[in-house]
Amino acid sequence: MEGLRGVIGRVRGWRRGWHERSKLERIDLYSRMTLCSITWFFAVSWGLLPLGETLDEGPAAMALGGAFLAANIAQSVLSNRNLAPAFDDYRGTEPFLPGRLRLPAALQVAMTGLLVALAAVGGVKDEGLVLLVLDLPVAFAIPYVLLVPVRRFLLHAAAYSVAVVALLAAVGVPGGQLLGAVVSLVAITLLVLTSARPSVWSLSVMWQAEEARDMQARLAVAEERLRFGRDMHDVLGRNLSVIALKSELAVELAQRGNPAATDQMVEVQRIARASQQEVRDVVRGYREADLPTELMGAQGVLQAAGIIVTVEGADGPAGIGAPAAVQAALGWVVRETATNVLRHGDPRHCWIRLARTRDAVVLEVENDGAGATRPLGGADDGGGSGLAGLRVRLGALGGSLSAGAVTDDLFRVTATVPITAPGPAANGRLAPSPEPSPAPSVLPEER
């Protein structure tokens, strides 16, 4: 019973690990597993079944067949181990160490010699020999085709095929079987070439696109930080310089006993207060969220990341007829959810729906993707500033926020804000919270 529970636990762990992978990671794993399975398919089928003939051909044939099978299994194991480094070398992320090919090359030479010896003692004949020739180069060729250019691979495959056919002819293999061996070698060369390289090339392009998207997001974040820094410098630079000069003047006047030092310090106090108000204005402008602007911004950013965005609303945000504070609060929801779609999900589609009921405005944001089950702001409601910050803003207006998985591959955030907001929205602005959180952006890494 304990053993069965352990097996069930491992299966659940594999399933959970599969769902936690992004779509690109799933495609990558699927491609690698497919190429690894091709090696074992050939080894178990066409590399094993013909060896049954050796059981009736005497001890020498049995020994050669067993040695060929052992070498084939070892070559398949090495092929699977070398596949991941070959992937990395093809993508240019990490070079393949040449020493890793020495043992596979030696095994390939040994397998070729064992096959020729089997043919010489009559251990395999007719179709069995053709099938063994078809299996012979598969395990070595799959990682090797990723390490060299196509032209060099074809030249090496042609030279190897000529050598194999020449050795078989030298031990007296009939012409019909030699022709079958030639066809087998040509077919398996083309099969490996057309199955391995296109798969890895497609993965390489997708990984480059993913890296470019991440880089674009990081550059956008850096640009926004520079913009905010310039705004703060423009506001504070001159005033701080004036404060410094007047403070120095006040010190000198005080040292001389001049009563004008008091006037200078009063002026410093006035400039400092004015600067404080200007900073508040800059931050307030930076933190204000306009619903139509946020909808357009979220749509543009998500589409730039390759996500299909659908915005649904009867009359659009301008026609919902809600107070400015309600639209601003919903703008924050759009901004935060767009941020989390980029950071935590790997979606293909995102739906933004805006609707007005008799007494409230409802905003729904849905996205698919493997990362859709991660909540905003962290692993639970208390983590991060996403859910907590949004709920504070909506709560000030009597609104609510819910977020959770609808299905295994669909995540939904629903914000509901009453149109008749309580007192804090009377002046069209949200009531300030005791500890306001920094403003998030529609770009990742800002929270």
Written overview of the protein:
With 447 residues, the chain is an alpha+beta fold. 64% of the residues lie in helices and 9% in strands. The chain has twelve helices and five strands. Helix 11 (324-344) links the parallel strand 1 and strand 2. Helix 3 (59-91) runs antiparallel to helix 4 (102-120) and helix 10 (291-304) runs parallel beside helix 11 (324-344). It is elongated and about 115 Å long. Residues 372-385 and 423-447 have low confidence and may be disordered.
Task: State the assembly state of the protein chains.
Answer: single chain
The helix/strand series, from N terminus to C terminus, equals HHHHHHHHHHEHEEHEE
The tally of strands reads: 5
Distance between the termini: 47 Å
Number of helices: 12
Structural class: alpha+beta
Widest sheet: strand ordering: 1-2-3-5-4
Name a few traits of the molecule.
447 residues, alpha+beta, 5 strands, 64% helix
Secondary structure blueprint with pairings:
Layout: H1 2-20, H2 23-44, H3 59-91, H4 102-120, H5 126-135, H6 138-144, H7 150-170, H8 175-255, H9 260-287, H10 291-304, E1 308-313, H11 324-344, E2 349-356, E3 360-368, H12 386-395, E4 400-407, E5 410-418
Parallel strand pairs: 1-2
Antiparallel strand pairs: 2-3, 3-5, 4-5
Please outline what is shown here:
By secondary structure, the protein is α+β, with helices and mostly antiparallel strands. The protein is built from 12 helices and 5 strands.
